[in-house]
Design the sequence.
């Protein structure tokens, strides 16, 4: 789980300055470069707030993704001082005097800090449910007419795991942590999917077997998905339970 | 009755340019695309990066407005029902509670129940024991509660479904495309001058009608056409705390006030909100005293709010319609409005503003009806029944999905 | 840039696949050992690969050394003289490190990777690391003793 600072003084007048080195790239440019800005900050200022200050007061052409401002939408993933984080919950406080901000690795860049998430989503299984059974307190019972409390899946599709994965650093074919974790969640809680399909999805040479247990994905995940463990559980399922899910007439061919 | 696969628009269909990629713009793109118009949408940042993405995620039952703003309340409960049908699997459907804690709250109780009944919001009155069985972390000193059909939505992903459906029906959606100016010729808006922030180049896009769906930024866009809209950006502070302190949406049973809602968002609990007014919706700070007030007021509903670890604190600006003199923003109505600027002497330009995240579809229907009348087209709205595509479809290349 | 063209700007460029940032030194295969921003698991993986490559290299070296036996007793004795020098024995310690690390980490990866103990990868690294360190020190002393 990535470490984020506890906000002690939200907003407030600027008490300090930070130097931000921001990755810049526009389509049509021969290559990328860094622009440096001096940004006024206070104790609780987040990287996203600092970047928006730059966008509003220094350079309107700076592009970045953001939406919810509270680690729920997953759009503001970027690499800050080399680490994959969500900019909206990463404060500038302990990042040193110069903060380097770059777009995520392993995903094609649209411009500046924006990556094009189509290739990220293309790896996922066809049906991903985003709601699931909730882990309610044992003493809580759902209201009349509602069978069980439900909640959204932990995964916010931020891509930090894919950016951190050393296997994805060398290959675009590997399904990657997010897609495999989503698949394992469908094994845990099918919601109408067929376990055989999910296991087939995870089974190829570019599926769960391509992982090298670096655990960088779990380290980077801001939302407690623990993709690495889920990939290992997929392997477990493939080795043990896989056969049981395959229809009888296919076993002899296997 | 609209079938599930609508054809792509004809080449000579009228072209609508929507400015603003928030919930309203998304629902409009969807509505126009289903009616067979050619649609372009431009958004200066990422889709939903304005107010839409930042709200607390409440799918309103309307109960909050059942006493003082019945128009809004009725809009909310209708749209609540429709959205559950056309965006299946997009909500944590655990219902909500209105909780009375003080004598003052209890004095409001009867008006509240009556108001909900008049607005046809289904409710269930609960004793403290029953309430604590549903939500064990509620304030043990609570006096009464009423169950309402609130729910939690994913503030970004739900509108993204509308964009996904629009895209797969031929709408052209452009993020990081900023409107520099509107093109006005002979008193008619003909299109927009655009800057593409992805390439750094400029161009212009012409259309038969331009729709201003920019929420709290409505006024700055309207001014480009030389007209005014009575919009007062009204921000509020929200907190996200670690831990899922409730499953149902928990509201305070009183007239609107600060910190009167706590609702779950995945493994977090969001507490909101406060209210003040500003001139510029881009300059929003997060006043520390508001943050403190969220903690204090929220903990009257759920005591654990007082000490739960903070994940984030941020501000979002509501687009409130009303007079500029209003100070706190709470007096202004939460209903929505389509303004045809032909009434101001400018053709080809319509603003849709006000409203709430819950009413995005209803806003789009109203506005699209007005636009179609202006264009002289007879095309009925299909969005009440059309089931939207999953949000992941927004990221799919078009040739991967059958038309 | 200030002249305005008709039509939505940038459409062709947006349609292209953009550049991709990768960790490493510019060569695709080098991404896995870039230490920047890495945590324990990624570091462990990188060292595992490096020791693995090292052991493969050693295997060929070993076969080459064994082939000296074909050249008769003199060649072998010459080799033994080098083989008992301090420099060579230090390399032996390095080899021991490689074997221990790759072997023990291999056990860790096997336990974690087949879903037996998937949530204890850090604890495993440290505890096997302690065992490995003790073995390495013991082995190094033994090797030094045979100098």
Sequence:
């Amino acid at each position: 789980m990535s470490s984020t600072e506890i906000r002690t003084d939200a907003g407030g007048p600027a008490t300090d300055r930070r130097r931000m080195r921001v990755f810049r790239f526009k389509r049509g440019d021969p290559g990328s470069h860094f622009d440096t800005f001096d940004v006024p900050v206070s104790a609780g200022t987040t990287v996203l707030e600092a970047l928006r200050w730059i966008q509003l007061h220094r350079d309107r052409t700076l592009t970045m993704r953001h939406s919810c401002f509270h680690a729920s939408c997953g759009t503001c993933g970027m690499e800050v001082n080399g680490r994959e984080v969500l900019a909206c919950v990463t404060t500038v406080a302990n990042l040193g005097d110069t903060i380097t901000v770059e777009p995520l690795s392993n995903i094609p860049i649209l411009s500046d800090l924006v990556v094009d998430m189509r290739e990220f989503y293309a790896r996922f299984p066809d049906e991903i449910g985003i709601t699931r059974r909730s882990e309610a307190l044992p003493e809580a019972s759902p209201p009349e007419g509602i069978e069980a409390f439900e909640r959204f899946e932990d995964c916010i599709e931020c891509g930090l795991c894919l950016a951190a994965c050393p296997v994805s650093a060398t290959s675009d074919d590997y399904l990657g942590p997010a897609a495999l974790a989503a698949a394992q969640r469908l094994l845990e809680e099918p919601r109408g999917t067929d376990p055989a399909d999910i296991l087939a999805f995870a089974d190829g040479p570019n599926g769960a077997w391509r992982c090298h247990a670096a655990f960088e994905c779990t380290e980077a995940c801001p939302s407690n998905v623990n993709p690495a463990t889920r990939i290992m559980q997929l392997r477990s399922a493939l080795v043990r339970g896989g056969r049981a899910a395959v229809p009888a007439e296919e076993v002899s061919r296997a | 009755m609209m079938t599930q696969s609508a054809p792509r628009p004809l080449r000579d269909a009228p072209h609508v340019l929507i400015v603003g990629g928030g919930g309203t713009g998304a629902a409009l793109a969807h509505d126009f695309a289903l009616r067979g118009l050619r649609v372009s949408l431009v958004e200066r940042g990422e889709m939903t990066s304005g107010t839409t993405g930042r709200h607390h995620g409440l799918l309103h039952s309307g109960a909050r407005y059942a006493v003082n703003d019945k128009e809004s309340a009725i809009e909310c409960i209708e749209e609540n029902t429709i959205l559950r049908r056309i965006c299946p699997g997009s909500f944590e459907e655990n219902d909500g509670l209105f909780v009375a804690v003080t004598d003052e709250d209890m004095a409001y109780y009867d008006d509240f129940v009556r108001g909900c009944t008049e607005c046809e919001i289904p409710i269930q009155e609960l004793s403290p024991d029953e309430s604590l069985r549903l939500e064990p972390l509620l304030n043990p000193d609570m006096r009464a509660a009423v169950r309402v059909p609130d729910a939690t939505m994913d503030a970004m992903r739900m509108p993204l479904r509308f964009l996904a459906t629009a895209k797969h029906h031929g709408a052209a959606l452009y993020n990081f495309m900023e409107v520099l100016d509107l093109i006005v010729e002979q008193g008619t808006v003909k299109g927009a001058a655009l800057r593409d922030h992805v390439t750094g180049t400029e161009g212009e896009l012409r259309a038969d009608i331009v729709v201003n769906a920019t929420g709290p930024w409505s006024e700055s866009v309207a001014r480009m056409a030389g007209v005014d809209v009575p919009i007062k950006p009204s921000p509020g502070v929200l907190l996200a705390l670690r831990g899922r302190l409730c499953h149902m949406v928990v509201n305070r049973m009183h007239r609107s006030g600060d910190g009167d809602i706590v609702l779950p968002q995945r493994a977090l609990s969001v507490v909101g909100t406060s209210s003040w007014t500003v001139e510029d919706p881009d300059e929003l700070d997060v006043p520390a005293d508001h943050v403190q007030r969220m903690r204090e007021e929220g903990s009257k509903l759920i005591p654990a709010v007082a000490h739960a670890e903070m994940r984030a604190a941020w501000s979002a600006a509501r687009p409130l319609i009303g007079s500029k003199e209003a100070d706190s923003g709470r007096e202004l109505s939460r209903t929505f409005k389509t303004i045809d600027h032909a009434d101001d002497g400018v053709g080809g330009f319509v603003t849709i503003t006000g409203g709430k995240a819950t009413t995005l579809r209803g806003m789009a229907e109203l506005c699209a009806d007005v636009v179609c009348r202006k264009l002289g087209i007879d095309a009925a709205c299909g969005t009440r029944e059309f089931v939207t595509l999953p949000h992941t479809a927004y990221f799919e290349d078009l040739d991967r999905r059958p038309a | 840039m200030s002249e305005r063209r008709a039509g939505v700007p940038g459409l062709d460029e947006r349609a292209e696949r953009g550049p991709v940032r990768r960790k490493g030194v510019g060569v695709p295969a080098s991404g896995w050992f870039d230490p920047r921003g890495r945590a324990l698991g990624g570091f462990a993986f990188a060292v595992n690969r490096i020791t693995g490559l090292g052991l493969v290299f050693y295997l060929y070296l070993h076969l080459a050394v064994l082939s000296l036996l074909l050249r008769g007793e003199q060649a072998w004795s010459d080799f033994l003289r080098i083989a008992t020098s301090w420099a060579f024995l230090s390399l032996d310690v390095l080899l021991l490190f490689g074997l221990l690390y790759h072997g023990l980490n291999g056990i860790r990866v096997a336990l974690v990777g087949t879903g037996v103990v998937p949530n204890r990868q850090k604890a495993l690294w440290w505890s096997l690391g302690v065992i490995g360190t003790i073995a390495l020190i013991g082995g190094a002393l033994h090797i030094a003793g045979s100098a």
About this structure: Chain B touches chain A through 68 residues (CB under 8 Å). The radius of gyration of chain B is 21 Å.
